[in-house]
């Protein structure tokens, strides 16, 4: 299996996964979305809130704020040595105390752990009028996207099979398929139609080119054919900022490996029992 | 209040709302503003496009 990046930033990655099965590509996608843990605000103790938003709307908005996560420092509350009571290694505490008139931003949340800060400081939480006040304490904990979308580390995370476009010798370069292609993947070459430089990965495999080719009256079979490569996949992974994309990918691979190992253990146990 | 994240994909869009509002009022092309602010997908774009701010109307009634 091989991964080659065409783009790798802190927040977005685009790569092709080679020599993999469709099942593995989907496992990888699902693990990145649902199993990679991040921090998000879960409990909110509201001491004072006379703003226009109800307490529960306010805490829901706080929950959706992405928080920078150091996976080596935090563990899930259920797996923590404190036994789920809540300590500094399973929860990050924030305090917020603002008096109106003003806009309360995510930057007004003061973290107890200077590393676990909000990704952005200017997410609007609530607008306060004169004499309105919000005082609260929020506790963020580690969990994953399968529990609630606020813990989901990725935004747009998906893949498609790599397109394989073959053009037969009997192509007469009429250009009908070039006009029909919605993503401008094709261009007219000297003798036949060609794939435009660097455009192959844009192909959505809509097969309008095949239809256009047939409509041009070339015969029973189209001269151009588009097929998906079932061993190569183009991935796009976008992060919400709580973890860099690279960390999301490496921890997803770790999770898949652990799950596969535990499956082997279970199978051994079953076969040993018989 | 503008929703914190896009309902569909989860991208944080509320941070862009202030600038969006200012630039719309200045008469700029909405399509260009959104592309400038990094809102590529139409799910994120509709979040700003279809938002109606009512917090100022609600604030007198606590």
Question: What is shown here, in short?
Answer:
The complex is a heterodimer of chains A (274) and B (62). Chain A is built from five helices and twelve strands. By secondary structure, chain A is an alpha+beta fold.
Structure explained in plain terms:
The complex is a heterodimer of chains A (274) and B (62). Chain A has 274 residues and is of the alpha+beta class. Chain A is 23% helix and 34% strand. In chain A, the strands form 4 sheets. Chain A has a 4-stranded antiparallel β-sheet with strand order 1-2-12-9. In chain A, strands 3-8-4-6 form a 4-stranded antiparallel β-sheet, with helices on one face. In chain A, strands 5-7 form a two-stranded antiparallel ribbon. In chain A, strand 1 and strand 2 (12-18) form a beta hairpin. Chain B has one domain (14-61): Homeodomain-like (Arc Repressor Mutant, subunit A, Orthogonal Bundle). Chain B is built from 4 helices and no strands. Chain B has helices at residues 17-25, 30-36, 42-49, 55-58. The longest helix of chain B is centred in the middle third of the chain and has 9 residues, at 17-25. Chain B is flat. Classes of the chains: A alpha+beta (274), B mainly alpha (62). The interface between A and B is medium-sized, with 26 and 20 residues.
